[in-house]
Design goal:
Strand order of the largest sheet: 3-2-1-4-6-5
Mean pLDDT: 95
Structural class: alpha/beta
Shape: globular
Strand content: 15-25%
CATH class of the largest domain: Alpha Beta
Order of helices and strands: EEEHEEHHEHHHHHEEEHHHHHEHHHEEH
Length: about 400
């Protein structure tokens, strides 16, 4: 079974092709285009590359195309894409303006280009559908909650992969199996022995922190939209509800302009005044730029705040995991986040931490009660696996 996973951005198309023949998981091909202006051509070129590489002989070999979709009204989990689901995504365009519109347009183009191939969505919100209600509610009037004002959580594919992989690395195959089958049985697979408590930090251009108990999420730092939680590359993160109307009135701008500024000029870019790229900000900070240094300090402080919250909710942690672009590559930020936490049982090994970059490994000291791990995420593999499960379930 060959499954293509397509990652659609506002100006990019990236893909990976997986083969699940004979119970194995193989990556057959990956590629991508940046600065895309014609998505129809980009999709055609993607399929042409797959054929030219010998990964497929024709589009008919594709069992499905899977998409890491973000959010839709009244829809979550892993589902077949049709106009009903696309309409539900369109209803929430305002919550994910940088994500939903390009996905919707690209999905429709894929459907037109390969009409006989099933298209499947795995929503980012799926991993949090089993979280305790108290962790996902806002203290808003009931009518607000009924129209969807609540925490949804995002980066679900990444945190699900970390839940599976960290359990395997910690010798808990029962929990790894439980996390793998989460969307099938709702977390009812048995967990043997002591609870496994993992805090996973997906730190990148967009960042979030999740606590998991026995492979099931208890919450996520991202809330109703990808605009919340930690500061992102150029998105603000958490903000007091009164700040928006105050800024609109005081600055004399429209609410639409305020939203644009918060999503395009906020976050690390807004704090640093330098860039939305953590590498540029770090370089400026090392040269004495106070605003750049402040941006890094705010990012670290917010990460520690969310880690601390889940540490308390879980009554400790067995593992703290760093993943995604910043988490996998920025040893100095991992060190800052973990600094002076020895009373919580978190102690880094400076040499291990400095040496590890974009590879899997343990960076905690031998004396650390909490294992600190770096695990490169694989969201596309999670999408492919869940797409496969959906296809197999529909045949039975």
């Amino acid at each position: 079974m060959k499954i293509l996973v397509a990652n659609l951005g506002s100006t990019s198309l990236k893909w990976r092709l997986f083969d699940f023949a004979n119970s194995a998981e193989r990556l057959l091909h990956k590629g991508g285009f940046e600065r895309v202006t014609d998505y129809s051509k980009a999709i055609g070129d993607c399929l042409a590359q797959l054929k030219e590489s010998g990964a497929i002989a024709s589009e008919s070999e594709l069992a499905a195309v899977g998409f890491k979709t973000v959010i839709a009204k009244d829809v979550t989990g892993c589902v077949r894409l049709d106009e009903r689901v696309l309409g539900a995504m369109e209803a929430y365009n305002g919550l994910a303006p940088a994500h939903n519109p390009p996905y919707i347009a690209g999905i429709r183009l894929f459907a037109k280009r390969i009409p006989g191939v099933p298209l499947v969505a795995l929503f980012e919100t799926a991993f949090y559908q089993f979280a305790p209600e108290a962790m996902m509610r806002y203290a808003v009037p009931a009518a607000w909650h009924e129209i969807g004002v609540r925490r949804w959580g995002f980066h679900g594919a990444s945190h699900k992969f970390i839940a599976e992989r960290s359990a395997a690395l910690l010798g808990r195959e029962d929990i790894a199996h439980r996390a793998q089958n989460l969307y099938v049985d709702g977390g009812k697979s048995p967990a043997n022995g002591a609870p496994l408590r993992v805090i996973s930090c997906h730190l990148g251009g967009s960042s979030s922190i999740t606590g998991t108990l026995n492979g099931v999420a208890i919450g996520n730092s991202l809330g109703m939209s990808p605009q919340s939680g930690l500061p992102h590359n150029n998105r603000v993160g958490d903000l007091d509800a009164e700040a928006l109307p105050y800024a609109v009135k005081t600055l004399g701008i429209t609410i639409e302009e305020a939203q644009r500024q918060l999503s395009k000029e906020g976050g690390l870019k807004g704090l640093s005044g330098v860039s939305n790229d953590i590498r540029d900000i770090h370089e400026a900070a090392t040269k004495g730029d106070a605003k750049a240094a402040l941006a890094l300090d705010v990012f670290v402080s917010e990460a520690r705040r969310w880690i601390g919250g889940y540490f308390l909710q879980l009554n400790g942690a067995d593992a703290l995991v760093f993943t995604a672009g910043i988490g996998e590559n920025r040893a100095e930020l991992r060190a800052a986040i973990c600094a002076n936490l020895d009373q919580l049982g978190i102690v880094l090994d400076p040499e291990k931490n400095a040496a590890l970059r974009a590879t899997e490994g343990v960076i905690s000291a031998d004396s650390s009660r909490v294992k600190v791990l770096v695990i490169p995420t694989n969201e596309e593999l999670v999408v492919a696996r869940e797409t496969k499960r959906l296809l197999e379930a529909s045949r039975n």
